[in-house]
Amino acid sequence: MLANIVGYAAAICMVCGYLPQAIYTIRTRDTEGIAMPTFLLMGAGSLFFVIQGILIANWPLVVTNTITTIACIIITAIKIHNHRHPRKHNSE
To answer: How far is residue 48's CA from residue 50's CA, in Å, rounded to a whole number?
Structure first.
């Protein structure tokens, strides 16, 4: 019982801590401060936690990391797009 409570508390903290920044990045498309290797490793880690959660039937782990994995995929796509098509900044 205590392990479930701790798992749900961790899930809530992770989503509440990660999602606002992810939403901001997705909305503004500002990926300048994101280090791609670190972000890709975090995304891979989230994906592995989804798999682990499925294997051990830990649904807070699955839900939390599914959310972070999806956000990571979206932000990575934005980062790649921004790298290929840099915005021209007007210095006026």
So the answer is: 5
Q: Vertex 63, ends 28 and 74: CA angle to 5°?
A: 25
Percent helix / strand / coil, the chain, rounded to 5 = 80, 0, 20
Question: What is the rounded end-to-end Cα distance, in angstroms, of the chain?
Answer: 61
Tokens of residue 79, six digits: 């980062």
Encoded tokens for 16: 């509440």
Half-sphere exposure of 42 (CA within 13 A, CB side): 17
In one-letter notation, the amino acid at residue 33 is: G
Q: Is the CB of residue 17 less than 8 Å from the CB of residue 67?
A: no
Write out the chain's pLDDT in tens, 92 residues: 888 788 888 888 888 888 898 899 999 999 988 888 888 888 899 999 999 999 999 888 899 999 999 999 999 999 999 989 887 644 44
